[in-house]
Design brief:
Radius of gyration: 15 Å
CATH architecture: 3-Layer(aba) Sandwich
CATH topology: Aminopeptidase
Helix content: 25-40%
Structural class: alpha+beta
Number of helices: 5
Largest sheet: 7 strands, mixed
Number of strands: 7
Strand content: 25-35%
């Protein structure tokens, strides 16, 4: 897997990877598989300046995305999130590899990485726990559609 900055011309490939409703069924925004909803997600990703495309090296295809956000230099922390992978790549180590690459990079600059995960998103919670993340809090967060939903805050600290 390669993780590279997301580009404006990546929308169609990202939409192809994200268009399966199963990806979003436990997510606080379960309609993100729809083109217009994903377009808002993509626009936000591009504006963030911290979004990445996950690319399968063999095929060169975009298979998902993730991003850094909420960098706080005073607290020496950053968040990783907005992560998804096409269902064909679930359970094959791609999520772990993507997170490991991002964590390795983040820990060159910060001491703590946070993850905000929807309370009903059990798949993402289990994946983070497998990486050694622990729950450190709960908060209600706003989605792109303006609704609020409960999230668990996980952390991984530099060892």
């Amino acid at each position: 897997m390669e993780v590279r900055p997301l580009r404006k011309d990546d929308f169609e490939a990202l939409y192809a990877a994200a268009s399966d409703p199963r990806i979003w069924e436990q997510h606080p925004e379960p309609t993100r598989y729809q083109r217009e909803v994903l377009q808002k997600f993509f626009d936000g990703a591009m504006q963030s300046g911290g979004a990445f495309a996950a690319v399968e090296v063999q095929s060169g295809n975009i298979i998902g995305s993730s991003r850094f956000y909420d960098f706080n230099s005073d607290r020496h922390e950053v968040a990783i999130g907005y992560t998804f992978l096409a269902t064909a790549f679930w359970g094959r180590g791609y999520n772990r590899e993507m997170k490991a690459l991002m964590l390795d990079h983040a820990f060159r600059f910060v001491d703590r990485v946070l993850f905000q995960v929807g309370a009903n998103n059990l798949r993402s919670q289990r994946a983070l726990q497998k990486l050694g993340a622990r729950i450190v809090g709960e908060e209600s967060l706003s989605a792109l559609d303006g609704t609020f939903s409960p999230h668990f805050i996980f952390e991984i600290t530099r060892k």
